[in-house]
Amino acid sequence: MIYYFMLLGAAALFSIQFLFQQRFEKAYGTDLKSALVFSVGTGFGMGLIAFVIALFMEGMHANVFSLIVSFVHGLASFLFMYCSLKALKYANLSVFAVFSMLGGMLLPFFYGIFLAPVKEEVTAGKLICCALITLAVICTITGDKKGNKKAYFYYFAVFVTNGMTSVCASVHQNYPLINVDSYSYTALASIWLMVLGLVFLPFVKGEIRKTPMNAIIHMTGFSICSGVGNIILMLALLVLDASVQFPYSTGAAVVFSAIITFITGVKMKKNEILAVVIAFFATVAMMF
Prior knowledge:
78% of the residues lie in helices and 0% in strands. The chain has ten helices and no strands. The chain is globular.
């Protein structure tokens, strides 16, 4: 049961992480250069946090397998950063969280059931949870009568890229004989994220704008929440199946994001509130 409470903590951190990301977008922008600066800054911050923890816990480790998987993870995170900044232009935090976390749920869920080296058990709770989360997304989509095609493109991109980061984490943890510890893996994925940003930054036209202090604060907040949250997920994957962990944390993150949306004074539509209620019951269903 303690691992479920750990996942609740991680879900809360991810919801706050999205808020910091949204605040950065308002402070610095949503263009490609902004996304690259955000990738470099947060990649450095998350990598530093995970690296320091790794040194104190088990030492920093790396091998060919972990470097390859963490690179794919870093690349998916890199694309997720850009698409997230764009998506947050069109949706409030709770709507964004529904799409983002759904990808983080369904892709690793199907990986665990169909592709994992040791196939995970299909239970009624897992199926009910996935069905309810999917219904929550349908509620969100059907309530958007404007139907902004560009928004849907970035929603889908966020769905896929966030899902791929979760799949990479699951793949790495499923091979205990050749993988490295969770802290080292998180540090490696974050370092790749920073490196990718630094590689592409010189090729983007225009000067790099001076980063205001509030944007730096938002990047720092994101780094702390994302870094610690990802480490918790990696540790939980050592005990819980991916088909259990990600649906559960998804529903919890949607609920926490809705609470943050309410606290910050953003008005939610009826269909968005319904989606959050459904996500809550999906989270409860996964515990049985």
